[in-house]
Amino acid sequence: MFQKIKQKFLIVALLFFPFLITAQESEKKDGIKFGGALRYNIISTNYEGSTDKTDPQFTWDTWRLNMDGSLSGIDFSFEYRFYPSSNNHFMHHGWMGYKFSDMVYTKLGVSQVPFGITSFASHSYFFQAPYYVGLEDDYDMGIKFDITPTKDIDISLAYYRQPEPNGSGAGNTARYSYDIVPGMGAIVDGDGKYQQTYASLSELDQFNARVAWRFVPDWEVGLSGQIGGIYNSKLDKSVTSGAFAAHLVGDFAGFNLKTEFVHYNYRANDDNGNRLDVVQMGAYGADYPGGTVDEGTDFVDYTGGVASKANMYVAGLAYTIPVSWGPISSIQPYVDYTYVDKANEHFENTHHLIPGFLVSAGPIFAYFDYAMGKNQPWFTDDFGKGLGSGVEDASWNGRFNINLGYYF
After folding, report:
1. Longest CA span, the chain
2. pTM of the model
3. What does R_g of the chain's alpha carbons equal in angstroms?
4. Exposure letters 356-389 (e unless 16+ CB within 10 A, then b)
5. pLDDT averaged over the chain?
6. Which of 7, 62, 232, 377 has its C-alpha lying 20 to 30 A from 396's C-alpha?
7. Domains delineated in the chain
8. Which pairing describes strands 50-51 and 88-99: parallel, antiparallel, or unpaired?
9. Can you tell me the distance from the alpha carbon of 132 to that of 377, in angstroms, rounded to the nearest whole number?
């Protein structure tokens, strides 16, 4: 099946050959620009009704290095990130780009996957829930064509052979964006019991298509599709999975609205060939652990990971207030919310709610968030289970977080 898809993708790419041969000499000047960022977090948690006696905590969030430039008409962009608190580091993106014509721009390397709202479906520091299942601000390794047939229409077609490369510090999970990784998944029986099972999984041969239309200057509506293989190395076999998104974003009277519907179906098999109800995903040096095995059995009272099939309802609203308070130029209050409706009747659904505000002051951006979640994977003392089976009668947990970043 994937061989046929590859052939069709090649045919589509060749349709744009007339545009490719009209390539013109780049007007960009040769040069390289270096940049980066340094960010800190101040954290205070309230999980499962208890508080951490060490709160508030002051942590070093990340530091990063950026390099962007153009040489002989070929553009490039590279970013590498270091996360001292989790002791891992990895590439965020790295691609070479070329403008074949006024209509076609191509990126080769690790680039942002064209799916849903880009660049972000969120306003807050914590993203929206699609990020934590690999469907917001995702980066993979492959080739992407950005096509602009008119000033109001953007089309993106992409083929990704594999996820971004692993970094250093945590094996298959040392990466920026969430991907399916080898690990413990689960199968759910008719009584709702979760049987743990290992699956040697990775993402392979993914195709993306995205179309966005600006029907008035400040409003955009779009559709996205994704199809790809989830490869089991032990079985040497891929199972086709897919995702779909529809989005609407716009600006009005100082407000910014982001809305999105996402459906995904991560069809995958464990190492014995059984279809999984929960797949394992990971990033930032950790997967989604979870589950207490009943003595003498393979059954668990819950399971960590990501439900293999779900609908996600995403909405975010922000309002920008221009100010002139010394270096502070604007304050942007916002609220972001995602509801994850899992297909399996035995699973508990997820709520992800982030009210907060952003303060901009020259090169400094400070996010003040009170992040809340119910069956959210990591606003909890039991990290990892929220997007899998979840737990019945879950509590609303909260985390007050200040992220202070200096960008240069």
Report:
1. 69
2. 0.92
3. 22
4. bbbbbbeeebbbbbebbbbbbbbbbebbbbbbbb
5. 91
6. 62
7. 2-25+37-407 (2.40.160.10)
8. unpaired
9. 9
